[in-house]
Amino acid sequence: MKYPVHAMLIAGLLLGGCAVQRFGASAMLMPPEGTELPIHVRAGLFLLPTHFAGDPEEHWLLLDTGTDRALLDVRLAASLGLKLGSRTAIIAATGSEVSAQLLPPLPSLRMGSVIFHNVEAAAMDLQTLRDNTMLPIEGILGCDLFRNCLLEIDVAGRRVSLRPLSMLPDEPPIYFTSRVPVVQASFAGKPIEILIDTGFQSLLALPSEASITWRMRPRRTGELATLDGKAEHGSGRAQGELRLGSLSFMDPWVTLTKGQPKLGLRALRNSLFTLDAAGGRVWIGLRR
User: pLDDT band at 24, cuts 50/70/90?
Assistant: First the structure.
């Protein structure tokens, strides 16, 4: 029996080079007070219409806080005249490594009224991802692109905004030390490190070997689309409380799959999520 692709779990981290190196844009231009970005919401995910220097076409890139930098499909890179460089590897959401190639810095990348200059990026073949999700994803926008600003996501309001680094939220921040927002949370009274991943539509993903007491035992519910293809998954209702900052979920629905524990967009649906990629901070506050 074939199961449909039920959700996406895209998170990836590029390997290679200095472990403390950060990637992104050398500079960016945006209105002084910040701005809201144009978006398309498809299958519960945020796709941002993006333009590149010398190319009049609009391209849709996925906003994914589980990935550290910008990724382009190899076909898009070729159409932009970008030469593929040395090989590197990306850790996909399942924990497996996927091959990619480094690109020369992109001269400019524009979303709405915001322009990023000299953007570090890599290229990989995203055709399988498009086929599995039936979404026109030509690239991925990861955390490091937003190191010169605050990234603000209102899931329920379907809004994505960029703010100056000086416009910090009033709530106390939650800190992280990795290149993507892996933060400390608790589940069923035990500490857990969890990745806040906007490339995942559901509430909580945990590895299959996690010790969980179930209220409703998991059953197979489909497949997850990942950078390296598809991953089977089951879902069930766990017993216990998930807590992260101001977020609290009693007996949450859990997706069982390989890789890092992840908090998805459904968990943020009543909150305003703000990311300071440069400062290693996130805020989860009330929607305005």
Answer: confident
